[in-house]
Glucose-6-phosphate isomerase
Amino acid sequence: MASPTLISDTGAWKDLKGHVEEIKKTHLRDLMADAERCKSMMVEFDGVLLDYSRQRATNETVDKLFKLAEEAKLKEKINRMYNGEHINSTENRSVLHVALRASRDAVIQSDGKNVVPEVWSVLDKIKDFSERVRSGSWVGATGKVLKDVVAIGIGGSFLGPLFVHTALQTDPEAIKSARGRQLRFLANVDPIDVARNITGLNPETTLVVVVSKTFTTAETMLNARTLREWISAALGPSAVAKHMVAVSTNLTLVEKFGIDPNNAFAFWDWVGGRYSVCSAVGVFPLSLQYGFSVVEQFLKGASSIDQHFYSAPHEKNIPVLLGLLSIWNVSFFGHPARAILPYSQALEKFAPHIQQVSMESNGKGVSIDGVLLPFEAGEIDFGEPGTNGQHSFYQLIHQGRVIPCDFIGVVKSQQPVYLKGEVVSNHDELMSNFFAQPDALAYGKTPEQLHKENVPPHLIPHKTFSGNRPSLSLLLPSLNAYNIGQLLAIYEHRIAVEGFVWGINSFDQWGVELGKSLATQVRKQLHASRTKGEPVEGFNFSTATLLTRYLEATADIPADPPTLLPRI
Ligand SMILES: O=P(O)(O)OC[C@H]1O[C@](O)(CO)[C@@H](O)[C@@H]1O
């Protein structure tokens, strides 16, 4: 008999469908009472501790999930990824972000060629160039040191680097090496983002890095042309060569744009945009800001998890366990969302980055073979650092919808504060919440408990918490560059595990294309209406009405306006 195409046709999937009905009869209050069970649900690797005992799962559930992984050929798929096979079949590409952080002597093949030497030749170039800028041996057109950097890019060419930058900004070692320097990110095509990013900057001391895998992304290219104009207007067109550099896979378009390809940092089509933070996309701007040695630690942290993911058995493999538990929550419990709740302000841009990695990867409607999925894949990711989230959306998580939560805690704060006479340190105060929230979700509060506390009867329904709400906790030893790399790789691989088991292609993103092509049609219409007075045509009633209103209300804009840059 031919093997089934869809994972939902397998015996393991059907078995879990039946098993979840049994698990629904249990309560986390009871499951948590079994210390042996809890002990078996703690896994540690390289200082990172995962506790998944607050999942609505038993050891039997986990065994059944491993069977599902077997049916999905998870290990084979992981091996195929590391072996450089073209697992991104709709784009006919290998998926080798692990090669970006492999050690210099590693061998990772793509299309019959070891890609590691190329990776390291770009890393060496980044090290050299960033040291020249930081030391002042590469200066701007007027001879001034380039102390500020604006990185232009969007999506994967922005969110990962922003996450890492935000996390490093308060790390003591990174602070020392960034002293006197600024790194900003211009992503949105909204001119307000341009205004915000150039405010307070002097073109004479600014280096602009255009980051785009394709070098065709409309938002990035318009922002690049805008900042090229900002530099030329202040320093003359010849200054662009000293003040603009690029990161791309498309060096031909980089040169066409007017950037010397010698000042461009390459990466490769086997690096997906949302998996590119460890390529020059992140490493170059971050090295300019923090120095290469700090960024190298970040790469090492990611590499440590890469090796763990590749070699650890499923029961000890943190990304595998996380991925399977997500599948359990999404596909069997039917929970559509996941909250990412780092108890560290330094991780405030982690959830926005994971939103893209997860939702662009796994938000798919067909299997990798193009068969319509009879189940929902992907989940809605959102999150905020604790404790801010507690004062925002936790009400819904505690008493409204069930949202599986990832609690991420850090043992040692980057910036400890102790106040004499306070009961606990500021970090202990933060961590008290990290430890308390998962139990509040798991145990809840019963009407009986409330009666005992003399709560007035009419308030009892309002103050009752059903509990039985799943979460997991990840505890990191600290939050230095190495740990940040670990955290990134854990989530990247977890998301790959989910996609491998669902049987989808987690490495393409056709879903973003339709919006792009419709925007092209609107752009053409706006140009024709503004320059030739052409009426709005070819749109439905709603869009035509809105477009007409927009054009009429801005009819005073000349057809060919002079260059105008923000002045704030
Ligand atoms: O780096 P580029 O080519 O400018 O693309 C930016 C982003 O656009 C997308 O293609 C769609 O959002 C992402 O996958 C990618 O990270």
Remarks:
- The chain is about 45% helix and 10% strand.
- The pocket of 6-O-phosphono-beta-D-fructofuranose is lined by residues 154-157, 212-214, 217, 220, 273-274, 360, 509, 512 (CB under 6 Å).
- The chain has a mean pLDDT of 97.
